[in-house]
Specification:
about 160 residues; mainly alpha; two-stranded antiparallel ribbon; 6 helices; 2 strands; elongated
C-alpha cells in the first residue's frame, strides 16, 4: 500500500492535523453532493444542512425540547425556532407537551422525518460502500481501526 504524500510536512501533529482537515473536508463535501436535489417532477427541495442536522439530533435523542436542540446544535434559540417551524410545517417533527414541565414542549421525529433520514443515510452509505470496495483489504482495515478514533475527535 502506498501512503499519500504529506504535502512536504513531517509526520507531526500539525502535519497530521492538516492532512485530516483536508481529507475530512473533501469527504464531507462529497457526501453533501449526494443529497436529494429538487427536480421537475414536483419533488420538494431538500432540507438545508442545519435542518437535516436538527432532525437527525431529534431522532437520535428520541425527544428534545427546543432549547436542548438549540444547545445541542450550538445555535441561538431564535434561529432554532425557525428551523423547528419549517420541519414541523413539512410534517417531519411533531410537538407534544413536556411530561413534567407544562411550560415546555418536546419535539419528536415523525415517521416521515425518520423515513427521510433513513433514505439520506442509505444513499450516503451505498456511495461509501462502493468507494470502500475499491480499496485494498489493508486500506479497509486501516479505516475500520481509525473510525472510532475519528469519532472520538469529533466529540471533543
Amino acid at each position: 500500500m502506498t501512503t499519500p504524500p504529506t504535502r512536504g510536512r513531517a509526520p507531526s501533529a500539525p502535519g497530521l492535523a492538516e492532512e485530516l482537515r483536508i481529507s475530512i473536508a473533501r469527504l464531507s463535501r462529497r457526501l453533501r453532493t449526494l443529497r436529494p436535489q429538487a427536480g421537475g417532477d414536483g419533488v420538494q427541495s431538500p432540507l438545508s444542512l442545519t435542518q437535516f442536522a436538527a432532525l437527525a439530533a431529534i431522532e437520535r435523542h428520541g425527544s428534545m425540547t427546543p432549547r436542548e436542540l438549540a444547545d445541542h446544535e450550538k445555535v441561538q434559540p431564535p434561529s432554532m425556532t425557525r428551523v423547528i417551524a419549517y420541519l414541523e410545517e413539512r410534517g417531519l417533527v411533531a410537538r407534544r407537551p413536556h411530561p413534567t414541565d407544562g411550560r415546555q414542549v418536546e419535539l419528536n421525529a415523525t415517521d416521515e422525518g425518520s423515513a427521510l433520514l433513513a433514505d439520506e443515510r442509505r444513499r450516503k452509505e451505498a456511495w461509501l460502500a462502493r468507494r470502500l470496495s475499491e480499496l485494498t483489504d489493508e486500506e479497509r482495515e486501516i479505516l475500520r481501526r481509525a473510525a472510532p478514533v475519528i469519532d472520538k475527535l469529533s466529540r471533543s
